[in-house]
Structures are given as structure tokens and as C-alpha cells.
Specification:
Layout: E1 4-8, H1 20-34, E2 38-44, E3 52-55, E4 58-63, H2 69-83, E5 88-92, E6 108-112, H3 126-136, H4 139-142, E7 147-150, H5 153-161, E8 169-171, E9 194-198, H6 207-217, E10 225-229, H7 235-245, E11 251-255, H8 259-268, E12 271-274, H9 283-290, E13 295-298, E14 313-316, H10 321-333, H11 335-349, H12 354-369
Parallel strand pairs: 1-2, 1-5, 2-4, 5-6, 6-7, 7-8, 9-10, 9-12, 10-11, 12-13, 13-14
Antiparallel strand pairs: 3-4
Helix pairs in contact: 1-12, 6-7, 6-10, 9-11
Length: about 375
């Protein structure tokens, strides 16, 4: 029986600041539409964004902006529920909870990529960070009795530690678009060592750790290059660090690149590095693995769930520059290890499909809605 689904998320994929949480939600929502369900997404607006449009079958309704959207949600919900009938609400807690159960009584599935907790203070000013920190505190009370969908075992453990009953939390891993992210026999690895970072340039992403580690191995690998793909408000600080380390001739900042170019870099790289403080999951890890490239990443919640240590990549203790440098040196200098990891990465990535994720998710949505 087709469902009428009302979803809420801070941003949508057309937003220039969209990230992994938006990819996760909309990969699922688009597939729900193809399954015959109707989907509306309430989200924030952005410069040159339109208030309402259809995107691949999903009806987008936008209001407010990054800073005001959570205050718009109660009014948007009341207006939408007065105008249209729905079977279930999907609330994506990405940054700040919307507390939708306070404004509507429909069956609700709470989607949690990850919570910030203390990590929020690494990224933004104390006042805004303290607001987000406090906003997470009432989650167990406000969402009591609701089902939660998380994207990693790490996030499940975080929720249960906060008092959410384990039986109310379901883990459904993210997927990968294999039509885009795949190994191409026609594309060879770079002749000289190539290290790639792919992601937003935010302080909590800890790209400065990668720069410091690369500087330590630069003398041993005089032809090695570091490509940093992505944009963000930490860009200026990272440029200063790059110059201070004396590696500006070896490091390239590409800014935003189209998907096809991103895939090309992932295929040609010898290794992809994810040094972040905390993530809900490592989308980039699996995308790199699907292209036949191993990863080296911090052993932190979310990232560790997306890596099979010794098979698809290597983990190091977060913030330990010497350990990160040692792993890079090991991968770049040992061709037999690199080939083993490349083969293992391809095998590991195959289990993460968006079609599988959407099938598992819609079963949970139907369960929450009381529909079969």
C-alpha cells in the first residue's frame, strides 16, 4: 500500500552546503518515490533557491535559512498537515532536533546520522555550540516511544548511552552509487604517489592533521602529491598552514569539482585519507573503496564503522600525526600491501548498496506507520 511520507531535514541536496546527511536521506527518498510512495520534504531555503519544486519525484518545500529553519518547522508542519494528509513523518536530526512530536501526532521515524555532543565546540563559536549541545539533551524525553534509524553502530551506541532503548534503534548502513563509483580498467593509478582528501573544509574535519602528516613524509617521497577536494570555511586557515609547513608546491586545493572529476581522482589516488574528529558514517571511504582505492582514516565513531581494518584500509588514533604519517608511509612504499588493500577495498564496498538500504528503510517506515 503506497505511503504518504512527510520528511524534515535541515538542508536538501540543492543547497550549496549540503553534505553526507542530505545524500543519505535523498538517496532513500528518491527510491521511495520509485516504489510508488509519495514524498514531501520540508527543508531550509538558500540563495537563489525556490520555495517549492519537484526534484526527481520528491516535493521540496523550503522556508527560512540555515539559522532560522528550526524555528520555521512548527509553522511549516501545521500548514502542511492542514493542507495534506500523511501516514508518517521522517525527522532527520542533522545538527539540531526539530522536536516534531511536540507539533504533530503522526507516527514518526527519527533518522540520526550522528550527534555532536562535545565535538560541536571544535567547529563553531561557544554560544551557538552551547545551543546545539543543549538542544540534544531532551532527545530521549521528546522522542520517547519513537523508533530511531541510525547509519552506524557507533551512533546506535551513542543513542543508547543517552537513554534511548536499544530495541527502538535500528542500524541501516548507507549505500554507494555503483553506476558512478566503480573501478575503471582504463584508468590507471597515478605514476607517482597520490594522496587525496575529499570532503568539506571544516575545522572538525581535521585536514590540518593530514597536512602535518604529509609534511613529515614529503622528504621520503619527493614526487608525492596531496590533492584536497572540497570547499568550506576552514580553507583560508589551511592555506596558511600549508605555507608554514613549506609544502605549498606539493599540495593542490581544487575547490568544488563535478562528480565525474571527483570519481577520476578517487580512481587515480594511491590512498584516500579521512582525518575527521567524528562522522555518522564514512561515505567517502566506501566511494573510494568502490573505485579500488584504500583509505587511511581516524579511528573515531562513524569512520571506524565504514572501514574493515587491514582489508579496505587502515585506522589510526585520532590526532596522532606520527601514526597517520606512518600509515601513509607504509601504504605508499609497500606495493604488495597496497595491492592487497585495493582488492580488499573493492570486495568490502560491494555490500553497501543504496537499493538495499532503501529496501531496509522502507520496511522500517512501513512498520512505524503501521502499514504492510
Amino acid at each position: 500500500m503506497p505511503l504518504r511520507i512527510l520528511a524534515i531535514n535541515w538542508r536538501d541536496l540543492k543547497n550549496p552546503l549540503a553534505g553526507g546527511a542530505e545524500v543519505h536521506l535523498e538517496e532513500n527518498l528518491r527510491r521511495f518515490v520509485k516504489m510508488g510512495h509519495s514524498v514531501t520534504l520540508l527543508t531550509s531555503n538558500f540563495p537563489d533557491g525556490v520555495k517549492e519544486e519537484m526534484v526527481e519525484g520528491v516535493r521540496m518545500v523550503r522556508a527560512g535559512n540555515d539559522y532560522t529553519f528550526n524555528w520555521c518547522v512548527p509553522f511549516m508542519l501545521r500548514k502542511e498537515l492542514k493542507k495534506n494528509s500523511y501516514d508518517v513523518v521522517l525527522e532527520d536530526i542533522n545538527k539540531v532536533p526539530f522536536y516534531s512530536p511536540l507539533y504533530q501526532k503522526l507516527p514518526t521515524l527519527v533518522i540520526v546520522p550522528h550527534l555532536f555532543a562535545d565535538a560541536v565546540f571544535q567547529e563553531i563559536n561557544f554560544v551557538l555550540g552551547f545551543y546545539i549541545y543543549l538542544a540534544e539533551k531532551p532527545i530521549p524525553r521528546v522522542y520517547r516511544g519513537r523508533k530511531f534509524c541510525v547509519i552506524s553502530e557507533s551512533t546506535r551506541q551513542d543513542l543508547t548511552a543517552r537513554g534511548i532503548p536499544a530495541e527502538d534503534v535500528r542500524v541501516i548502513y548507507c549505500g554507494t552509487d555503483f553506476s558512478l563509483y566503480s573501478k575503471d580498467p582504463k584508468v590507471a593509478k597515478e605514476k607517482d604517489p597520490l594522496v587525496v582528501y575529499l570532503g568539506r573544509l571544516k575545522k572538525y574535519k581535521s585536514v590540518d592533521h593530514l597536512l602535518a602528516a604529509f609534511a613529515k613524509i614529503a622528504v621520503d617521497f619527493p614526487k608525492a602529491r596531496l590533492i584536497i577536494i572540497g570547499e568550506g570555511d576552514d580553507h583560508s586557515r589551511l592555506l596558511v598552514i600549508t605555507r608554514k609547513l613549506g609544502i605549498e608546491s606539493r599540495v593542490t586545493y581544487t575547490g568544488f569539482v563535478p562528480k565525474e572529476e571527483k570519481v577520476s581522482w578517487l580512481r587515480k589516488a594511491w590512498v584516500v585519507v579521512c582525518p575527521s574528529l567524528k562522522e555518522g558514517w564514512g561515505l567517502t571511504n566506501i566511494e573510494a573503496n568502490a573505485c579500488g582505492t584504500p583509505v587511511v582514516c581516524a579511528d573515531v565513531p562513524g569512520l571506524r564503522d565504514s572501514v574493515s581494518p587491514g582489508k579496505s584500509g587502515l585506522l589510526y588514533p585520532y590526532g596522532q600525526i606520527e601514526d597517520l604519517a606512518a600509515h601513509l608511509r607504509e601504504v605508499l612504499s609497500n606495493s604488495s600491501l597496497r595491492q592487497k588493500l585495493e582488492a580488499g577495498a573493492l570486495e568490502w564496498a560491494q555490500q553497501f548498496s543504496w537499493d538495499r538500504a532503501a529496501e531496509e528503510m522502507i520496511k522500517l517506515v512501513c512498520e512505524v506507520a503501521g502499514k504492510k
